[in-house]
Amino acid sequence: MRAVVHPGGLSGGPARVPGDKSIAHRWLLLAATAAGRSELRGVPAALDVKATASCLARISRTDARGALEGWASRPCPEADRDRSTTNDPRPRGVDLVLEAHGRAALEAPDRCLECGNSGTTMRLLAGVVAALRFETVLVGDESLSRRPMERVAEPLRAMGADVRTTDGHPPVVVRGAALRGIEHLVPVPSAQVKSAVLLAGLAADGETTVLEPAPTRDHTERALEHLGAPVAFEPGRATVRAFQHGGFAATVPGDASSAAFLVAGAVLTGSALEIRDVGLNPTRTRFLDVLERMGAEVRASVEREELGEPVGTLEVGTGGALVGTAVGPAELPLVIDEVPVLALLAAHARGQTRFAGAGELKVKESDRLGAIEGAILALGGDARVDGDELVVAGGGLRGGQAPASADHRIVMAAAVSALAAREPTTIEGIEAAEVSFPGFVDVLRALGAGVEV
User: Fold this and answer.
1) Nearest CA among 86, 135, 143 for reference residue 435
2) Among 192, 315, 320, 416, which is least packed, fewest CB within 10 Å?
């Protein structure tokens, strides 16, 4: 689907964004492995999250399977869309009630588990089934089938599971076994690998410790701590011991990474904006520090907690001129999902912006480093990839024709950067936004952006 974005400001908030898919993946896994009843509210209609629900339906007992399968099989996020207010057209998500009977009650699937485009689904689910005495085959689409899986297979093998990959890539075949705790140093910072090992550690004999060269998002650790698990964590280190948790009730916070696109659009156009009910976990809001260094005015206010996750409001001020900055290797893992929008925003700043240690972006849903470079160049800016570093020259974007992309974060970054371009911008494949931000175009329109589809 083609979208044409016209330059212009946003009309202001309040606005909301869909539920956080990183959190939703983890809470769905914890609900399906709980011993008891769980109530999840506001589960986002993102395609990746539906992949996790669909996979869990295949291994859950009948009383949990129906709820998971019924929602995951809905053909379109439109079914979840809430248009009750003019400026809040986001999908409200769905409320799920799961009756589960503990990790040991999960059943062998009758076919391969289809993970779609979701690396989070594949890696975290591998950790869950590593202790189960049956074989699970995890498959993905063409893009996911090119992504590295040995980084999760290796520690699970060290714990005792039989894990096979195809030349290091999906399909991933896991035959569960009795697990033992290990101490594992993750060579490349990855919240997905860390979470997979910790989830396996819940069924392992002894302590399981994950060490990271740089801190990553801690949603798994926070949820486990809230559920009473014997978990200890600090930046760069997390330890867990065997534990069977009970059911729980929680509302999925708004996705901070989705909010980043609206924040960037407001910052670029000097528009005041308020985004409510956003997850404000410090491991997810580091992009606000980058924006502050660039001269943006954004304030975060925590108002409550959900399963250990701080939730509140983001307020964007009208601000001033943006300046370039530097994002180093230690900071980059904490803004990994926001690099596309930060880079497109940096193309409008005064001076150069550098993203160092960004090699992990080459093995995301696409080669995001190359895709960011290509988008900036196509829209009249200047950027280059030098090894694992992305360098963006400021000065503004002309607009024009953005390269076609199936990567959700690339098309959304191009769309919000187009609000400050000198000419209209045409974006092919805008429907890719549905992967993580269902209703993205509708939200932009409701906030006053000139978007034609």
Assistant:
1) 143
2) 320
Q: Both 335 and 282 in a single domain?
A: yes
- How far the first Cα of the chain sits from its last, in Å, is 7
Q: Which domain holds residue 286?
A: 2-17+253-452
**DSSP secondary structure string for all residues of 17-42:** -PBPHHHHHHHHHHHHTSEEEEEEEE
CA–CA gap between residue 307 and residue 29 (Å, rounded): 14
Q: Single out the catalytic residue among 337, 367, 407, 442.
A: 337
Among residues 9, 161, 15, which one has the least CA distance to residue 85? 15
- Among residues 234, 226, 283, 284, the alpha carbon closest in space to that of 257 is found at 284
State the amino acid at position 153 in one-letter form: A
pLDDT in tens, 296-350: 999 999 999 999 999 999 999 877 789 999 999 999 999 999 999 999 999 999 9
pLDDT tens digit sequence for 166-211 = 999 999 999 999 999 999 999 989 999 999 999 999 999 999 999 9
302 and 326 assigned to the same domain? yes
218 annotated active-site:
no
Q: Are residues 183 and 69 in the same domain?
A: yes
Helix ranges, 60-96 (H): 62-72
Measured CA to CA in angstroms, residue 446 lies from 16, 44, 238, 321, 432 at distances of 11, 19, 42, 26, 19
Rounded to two decimals, the pTM is 0.91
346 and 388 housed in the same domain: yes
Closest among 221, 178, 214, 175 to 198, alpha carbons compared: 221
- Classify each residue of 271-285 as buried b or exposed e, where b means 16 or more C-beta atoms within 10 Å of its C-beta: bbbbbbbbbbbebbb
DSSP state, residue 359: G
CATH assignment at residue 86: 3.65.10.10
